[in-house]
Amino acid sequence: MVENQHPSNLKPTLSTSKLFNQTKHGPHFSLTPTNILPQTPQTPPNSKPCFPSPKPTSLSNKLGIRGFTVSNSVSSVAKPVEINGEGCSSSSSSSNGYDYYDAIIIGSGMGGLVAATQLAVKGAKVLVLEKYVIPGGSSGAYQRDGYTFDVGSSVMFGFSDKGNLNLITQALAAVGCEMEVIPDPSTVHFHLPNNISVRVHREYDDFSKELISKFPHEAEGINKFYGVCWKIYNALNSLELKSLEEPIYLFGQFFQKPLECLTLAYYLPQNAGDIARKFIRDPQLLSFIDAECFIVSTVNALQTPMINASMVLCDRHFGGINYPVGGVGGIAEALAQGLLDKGSNILYKANVTSIILEDEKAIGVRLSDGRKFFSKTVISNATRWDTFGKLLKGKDLPKEEENFQRVYVKAPSFLSIHVGVKAEVLPPGTDCHHFILENDWTKLEDAYGSIFLSIPTTLDSSLAPEGRHILHIFTISCMEDWEGLSQKEYEAKKELVADEIISRLEKKLFPGLKSSIVFKEIGTPKTHRRYLARDSGTYGPMPRSIPKGLLGMPFNTTAVDGLYCVGDSCFPGQGVIAVAFSGVMCAHRVAADIGLEKKSPILDSALLKLLGWFRTLA
Ligand SMILES: NC(=O)c1ccc[n+]([C@@H]2O[C@H](COP(=O)([O-])OP(=O)(O)OC[C@H]3O[C@@H](n4cnc5c(N)ncnc54)[C@H](O)[C@@H]3O)[C@@H](O)[C@H]2O)c1
Ligand SMILES: CC(C)=CCC/C(C)=C/C=C/C(C)=C/C=C/C(C)=C/C=C/C=C(C)/C=C/C=C(C)/C=C/C=C(\C)CCC=C(C)C
């Protein structure tokens, strides 16, 4: 196994005149043998940067393989404001030669990057501060021995060329980028108890025919349940998606599309499992719908908001699942490059340790090396647990956050196994994504109960050396399982648990899998905590019990003036496309608050109060 490479080995590609010298600060994380997911970005030789041309043509900014090499420096003339004490004054503005930002964004996950680029496009001056050495967070990528591994899973929604919900395509287009994608013929292949095997085909009719062939007595129920999903999806897809916390936009949408908005408002507090039970009786089919929801929400259908379920159960057929050529990491890299092209900045190895408040308003951030940066607004892409528990440590938890934590808990983390295998082990026609639950439906949500598997090389062979495939195998795993172990015990446990998971996969899907493995790296919840800076390595928020659909999920504003959150602990929750939406919403709300978009202070305060009250009902 290749061990961590020191980040100083990374070679910035930006012109030195644009670089702000960070070398004296050194890396902000120590490298120990326990690190499993260290990412050493390398730029493929044939990569092309995504530079917006003055008159873009459809092909002008096409990204082939990933087109951005990491800089560990601020990539524009950015100077930290050096002020003693906590405060910021007008003297810290650019008038004294220091940069003062419209927005500082803590973290470059997909939520943070979408918020940043959307704001930059609206004319805001933005600084993204990322703890790690590459952008993307759980949507990043890393390279090892000729393989390009996606950090998270590789199921990409929102990457089509039609409708209003192709938010990844839109986010890239906003900064003048387009990525080449490969359509996935099936979203996921389910391998379930009692040998139920269901392929979710790209064409909805093919999927529904296959499902009905397994449950012919439930044909009507299947059509009705997925029919409601389509009704909701079509309503969503008809709206222009912006901030639901911005009244001028929200009331405008109600005026233009009253039926669609009322449909969404009606389903907002409902969950998929309840709707499914209105039409379906067969317990196995209800369990299948649990599995459909579980893979995108880490909870069963009774706990999955109906709007989110409809979004994923239909978008996979409407826009389809599309894999970006060169890997998922290319999206974050392109957005980061787009941000620079729009005149904003991103700084790597910038570990924010606190949010600076003045008169109870967020006015900047402090890094672990003591540097401070100041801005009109601060947007945190860290989870709400990290934001309020660590970055605002010492402050009383606002009532709104207490309410969030009453309704939501941290979902467990994952054990993640990245392997390279000899290509012959996969039968011809193997699907890209699989979900395996072998014998017992009750194990669906248990740690190590089910197995997720992505084989992105079935779509893009350039991700692995010739004659090899990538398998990304992951399963639920809790932090408690990995604590209190000596280094030796930890390493041994990793091998043991991974070996068991691989054996299960070998038995169920790919005989000979073990002996075909030529490369293996294992990440535990500790790895996710360390490299993604997520409390307990959590995958995201999940409801404590039965939620009222999406009603209890907070939007982007917080109880702290000037502080906003973005990412998966904001509406609508987990998932790359979900956090991209939260980024769009956040940028709109922030832009209105800093005067880059229309705003009505009276309507604002009425709507924010109303939404706050709705959340207390959840
Ligand atoms: N399509 C898929 O299958 C897939 C794959 C991967 C991830 N995901 C989804 O992505 C979601 C997460 O996206 P997200 O945008 O909310 O966040 P994220 O966790 O992916 O990214 C957050 C980023 O913020 C950085 N960060 C955190 N605290 C920091 C600090 N104090 N200082 C500086 N940087 C800091 C982290 O290093 C990380 O890069 C998950 O819910 C998951 O569902 C989905
Ligand atoms: C404002 C009020 C109170 C009322 C107004 C009514 C109104 C106008 C409401 C509008 C609501 C809107 C616009 C809602 C929008 C919701 C959206 C866009 C939701 C999107 C959800 C997306 C989700 C949940 C995506 C999840 C995807 C995931 C997690 C994918 C990853 C998959 C895996 C990790 C597993 C699969 C992997 C394998 C290998 C099987």
UniProtKB/TrEMBL annotation:
Single GO term (MF): carotenoid isomerase activity
Catalyzed reactions per annotation: 7,7',9,9'-tetra-cis-lycopene = all-trans-lycopene
Bilayer topology: Peripheral membrane protein
The protein's Enzyme Commission number: 5.2.1.13
Gene Ontology CC annotations of this record: chloroplast membrane
Cofactor: NAD(+); NADP(+); FAD
Domain of life of the organism encoding this protein: Eukaryota
Full protein name: prolycopene isomerase
Compositional bias of kind Pro residues: 41-55
InterPro entries from the UniProt entry: Amino_oxidase (IPR002937), CrtISO (IPR014101), CrtISO-like (IPR045892), FAD/NAD-bd_sf (IPR036188)
Location in or out of the cell: Plastid, Chloroplast membrane
Region listing for Disordered, in residue ranges: 1-56
Biased composition (Polar residues): 1-24, 31-40
Organism: Kingdonia uniflora
Pathway as given in its UniProt record: Carotenoid biosynthesis; lycopene biosynthesis
UniProt entry keywords in alphabetical sequence: Carotenoid biosynthesis, Chloroplast, FAD, Flavoprotein, Isomerase, Membrane, NAD, NADP, Plastid, Transit peptide
Family, similarity comment: Belongs to the carotenoid/retinoid oxidoreductase family. CrtISO subfamily.
Annotated ranges, domain Amine oxidase: 110-590
GO terms of biological process kind: carotenoid biosynthetic process
